[in-house]
Amino acid sequence: MENELQEIVEAFNKITPLIQQLFADPISFIITDREKVVGLLSHSKTPQNISIGDKLTGEEGLSLSMKDNRFVSMVLPKEFYGFSFKGVSIPLKDSNNTIIGALGIGINLDRQNELADISHNISGSLDQLAKAISQVTAGVLDIANYSKQNLEKMDKTKLETQNTDNVLDFIRNVAGQTNLLGINAAIEAARAGEHGRGFGVVAEEIRKLSSSSADSIKDRGYFTDHSKSYSQCFREY
């Protein structure tokens, strides 16, 4: 049993320095027989209170792994050593499957905790960004809806304006036709001489009504330049 353990310790001393270089986090290795520490490769950022030859207390993870023949993992908070620390251990067995010792690994968790904090902060920032984007999106949708409503109102106003133009065109046409009717009536009254005098008065009133209608539209700014020619035409007669 002692020879087999000695072989394991010799292999441990050769291989652990190489293994240690593979880890980004500070890591230490320890190997024991059933009672004491027989091999150690420590790191400056892992616990330094263990030396080769130290007796086991029976409460360590190494002792528990040998006692229960199982893998043991323990995490110690920062208050113990000034940094977070995780220790894992497994029992070592000889060729007869008898437990002859234990192998333990200690890992400084500060770097992992820092990365976890950074990830948490990034996650929080992304959540805030997502909320901000959601609010901006809602605002854009509100603006889009508001713009759509305004466009609909503009289209409605345009249609109503077109309808108003149609009414005004109709009034202008009626005024023009009425004025022509009055002119023709006045001409006929003049031909009738004394007998057409009363009819001439009616014709003049028709022309005044036509001119008044055209001027009323003009005063409200409804006449175009083309419409103004109607009013000028009315005054000429």
UniProtKB/TrEMBL annotation:
The keyword Transferase does not apply. Pfam families: MCPsignal. It comes from Sporomusa acidovorans (strain ATCC 49682 / DSM 3132 / Mol). Keywords: Transducer. Signal peptide: none annotated. This is Sensory transducer protein YfmS. InterPro entries: MCPsignal_dom, Sensor-like_sf. Residues 113-219 form the Methyl-accepting transducer domain.
